[in-house]
């Protein structure tokens, strides 16, 4: 089971409720925050943490690699990319460190296979056996979790904590002889993101294709 760093804390829930959490709510809050975090992270395909000099494996195409944004750096944007290595992928093909690349300072690395040919094995040019994947060691992520993400998660937790029944997200109110109920998606005592929540998160969804994550 994957455990993610919580995207927000009980204080964000209490602040939106406008009051302190009760003892019972405090007991529930930690688990519900973890549930909300897991759903947001899985949907957005990013953990909203700050990663410094970590390695991911990306696909390259037409001498270009698109990496996860936003990259984090100080000073020269090129410093966001620590190293670039073309993966040999077995069959006797060596890994090839590539130093002749340019970075646009946002999310694209460009390299030219013909440049620096004296340092490349001939097989690079004579065969298509290279898998076209690259180890990119770079810095990326968020110094702070965006407010919009915190709002979605905290409000989803509140919807469960304040439900008048045991069905998650069922919100009801009676005014004199009238009553209404609003149903969030999902069932049971668990956090459920609505379509409106997903619409708020869609700008944060990572659609860059990666292969794996390795730490160095």
Q: Give the SSE order as H and E letters.
A: HHEEEEEEHEHEEHE
Helix content: 25-40%
Q: What's the total count of β strands?
A: 10
Largest sheet: 8 strands, antiparallel
Cα shape: elongated
Average pLDDT level: 80
**Count of alpha and pi helical runs:** 5
Briefly note the structural class of the backbone: alpha+beta
Number of domains: 2
The end-to-end span amounts to 23 Å
Low-confidence stretches: 211-216
Proportion of strand residues: 25-35%
Radius of gyration: 23 Å
Explain briefly what this protein structure is.
With 216 residues, the chain is α+β, with helices and mostly antiparallel strands.
Task: Tell me about this structure.
The protein has 216 residues and is of the alpha+beta class. Strands 1, 2, 3, 4, 5, 6, 7 and 10 form an 8-stranded antiparallel sheet that branches. The chain has a two-stranded antiparallel ribbon with strand order 8-9. The chain folds into 2 domains: 10-46 and 145-202, no CATH class; 50-141. Helix content is 26%, strand content 26%. The chain is elongated, with a radius of gyration of 23 Å. It has helices spanning 10-17, 23-44, 123-126, 147-161, 195-201; strands at 50-61, 64-66, 81-86, 96-97, 101-103, 108-111, 133-141, 170-175, 178-183, 210-214.
């Amino acid at each position: 089971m994957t455990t993610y760093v919580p995207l927000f804390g009980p204080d964000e829930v209490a602040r939106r409720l406008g009051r302190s959490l009760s003892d019972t709510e405090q007991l529930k809050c930690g688990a519900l925050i973890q549930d909300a975090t897991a759903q947001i992270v899985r949907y957005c395909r990013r953990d909203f943490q700050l990663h410094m000099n970590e390695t991911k494996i990306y696909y390259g195409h037409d001498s270009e690699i698109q990496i996860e944004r936003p990259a984090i750096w100080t000073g020269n944007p090129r410093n966001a990319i620590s190293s670039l290595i073309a993966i040999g992928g077995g069959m006797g093909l060596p890994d090839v460190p590539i130093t002749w690349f340019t970075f646009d300072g946002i999310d694209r690395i460009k390299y030219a296979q013909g440049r620096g040919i004296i340092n490349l094995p001939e097989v690079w040019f004579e065969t298509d056996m290279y898998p076209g994947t690259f180890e990119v060691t770079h810095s990326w992520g968020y110094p702070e979790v965006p407010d919009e993400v915190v709002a979605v998660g905290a409000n989803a937790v509140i919807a469960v904590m304040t439900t008048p029944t045991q069905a998650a997200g069922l919100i009801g109110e009676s005014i004199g002889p009238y009553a209404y109920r609003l149903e969030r998606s999902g069932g049971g005592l668990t956090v459920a993101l609505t379509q409106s929540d997903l619409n708020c998160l869609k700008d944060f969804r990572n659609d860059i294709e990666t292969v794996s994550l390795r730490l160095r």
